[in-house]
Amino acid sequence: MAKNPKPTMEEIITRTVAATRLSCVRETQDVFKATERRLYAYPVLQAKIKDDEETLEELACHGMQERSKSITRFIKSGVRLEPDEIKEAVMLDLRATIDGDKYEISRIEKAMAQIADDEY
Q1: Is the alpha carbon torsion for 117, 46, 37, 104 positive or negative?
Q2: The whole model's pTM is what?
Q3: Which burial class, exposed, middle or buried, applies to 108 when counting CB atoms under 10 A from its CB (0-12, 13-18, 19+)?
Q4: For 67-115, how does the pLDDT look when each residue is reduced to its tens digit (9 = 90+)?
Q5: Residue 43: which of 117, 113, 109, 111 has the closest Cα?
Q6: Is the dihedral of CA 43, 38, 29, 113 positive or negative?
Q7: Does any domain span residue 1?
Q8: Torsion sign (Cα): 93, 98, 103, 107
Q9: Which of 94, 102, 99 is nearest to 74 (CA)?
Q10: How far apart (Å, rounded) are the C-alpha atoms in residues 79 and 81?
């Protein structure tokens, strides 16, 4: 049974360079795909913010539905929360979601502003 000879330094460098080139190509493609996903999500995020703000306003004015699916994660076994505490927690969570979506939109808009004058 013949042993595999150890690779030479030149072979190791050649393999490393090839692997790095392949990695760079993949990274470029991943960045492109992520940018594309963000741009497609832009109008969806705008509509979602509007819907979430309307939901927040309805919660503030009319309170919560008794069997809302959004409150189940705020109710733990053995812990009894008052309806007002649950409402406040849901509203706080919704505000955080809205702020996160607004932040994402602002990042997209800043990036688009940088290339607005580019003819391509």
Answers
A1: positive
A2: 0.61
A3: middle
A4: 555 555 555 566 777 888 888 888 999 999 999 999 999 999 998 898 8
A5: 109
A6: positive
A7: no
A8: positive
A9: 94
A10: 6
How many domains is the chain partitioned into structurally? 1
Domain range holding 105?
42-114
Question: Does residue 75 lie within any of the structural domains?
Answer: yes
Q: Is residue 87 part of a domain?
A: yes
In a domain? residue 76: yes
Q: In the prediction, which pLDDT does 23 show?
A: 74
Whose CA is closest to 16, among 4, 7, 6, 3? 7
Both structure tokens of 96:
């955080």
Residue recorded with tokens 């607004």: 102
**Which of 18, 86, 94 is CA-nearest to residue 53?**
94
The overall longest dimension of the chain from CA atoms, in Å, is 82
